[in-house]
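Self-study notes.
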Amino acid sequence: MGGGALLRMGAHAVGACLYLKQWEGQQRRGKSILPVSVMADTADLIHTDASENARKANAHQWISSDPVDVEDWANVVIRFDDGSRATVIVSDVGLGGLNTRVTAYMTDGVIKANMTANDVIETYAVDPRTFESENFTEKLETKAGWNRPSCDEDWFRGFSLEIEDFIHSIHENREPRSGIDLAVDVVNVIYAAYQSAEEGKVIQLS
């Protein structure tokens, strides 16, 4: 599997933020709200002095990430042409299983979408073997204690609706909701984020 955490996982989060701003722009002003600049920081945290000290203290047994020449952590700030911001944080070195959430802070409310882990189902087990044969979620170290299995994972992650929209777009001869423009913007933001992290400055998107 190629690429670091920003490219592999960050593309999904960046795509969600850009899509929501495109949709908001279409509703508010009849055209998409677009990203104009990117500021980012990336790191290979598993190979830092802090991580090495944890290993020496025998406190590093659960993190399996061991990247070669790529980042395992990234923080990206995207500025949009309406002045709003999106912050994306991705990591291969966090415990507790896959954690995918989007939080929108608005002028008159807050929306939190917990895609994984969601709390539709919660389990508790003293012995990790209790739910040994069950698929809970990616990157989960143990099934002991409290957990939140991802039930109907394809639906919660939006895969089913994405495929449905793609089929309808062919039938109706229209662009899919997450079409080529979104894909191009995601790639541009991701590459600008890498450039920003490398050069230590804000990158303007043309």
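Second protein, same conventions, sequence then structure:
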Amino acid sequence: MSVLERLFRRATFPIRMLPDCIIIGAQKSGTTSLYRYIIQHPILLGSNPKEVHYFDDSYHKKLGWYRSHFPIRSSKMCIEATPKYMFDKDSFRNLKSFLPDVKLIATLREPVERAYSHYKHVCRGMRGVTETRSFPEAVRADLDVLRKERILGNGSREDTYYSYIRRGIYAPQLSRFLEAYGDRLLVLRSGDLFKSPVSTMKDVFHHLGCEPVKIEANVYNQGDQEEEEIPCREELEEVFEPYNRQLYELLGVSEWWNY
């Protein structure tokens, strides 16, 4: 976004929209694909950029700053997608206070695959941070944090970049949003989005109150979905097993990942 466009957006914030729907997570679980599928609908517009990071990193800024990221008010609807919202402790409180009636979507990925994808993402460089440890070393460090009974993120560097295990412990993250938002929160499996995007998006459009439309189905960030042997996978599946059971109970399902 150019400086002139940024200034124009901030000058026109009073006539700009607030989001009708927010994709809150999870990181490395298909949020980019979901966002791009949604904005293929003719009455659904996206924020600029996709990840606004208002309720986690920028809540100290004024409302005009947040509105400046959205389109000028019209009969259409708009969305944003910041995957950190689901994991971050303060984001829930801020979001509930500011947008208590907004619709939410969370897409969840099998947690071991999510952890390894997250690790590779940081290894490639994430906002200037690069992971240098092996995957087993990196997850052991996050398990040490988990043993201190800290799951939700607090905005620290450690939580922002290196929360490989804790971000995949979904039940404590989702339970807060489900209690506050109820059926305004739609929970998806990322595998369904990747394998059956057309039928999955019918559910999404129904959740948003829109007539389904035909989408151009592509998996964005497709290289991240390739099958790859994950180091210490069996050990991590054991780590996640009790947390997965918590998720199943929360969602009222008997299984979720098809192990």
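Instructor comment on the second fold: Residues 144 and 150 are 10 Å apart (CA to CA).
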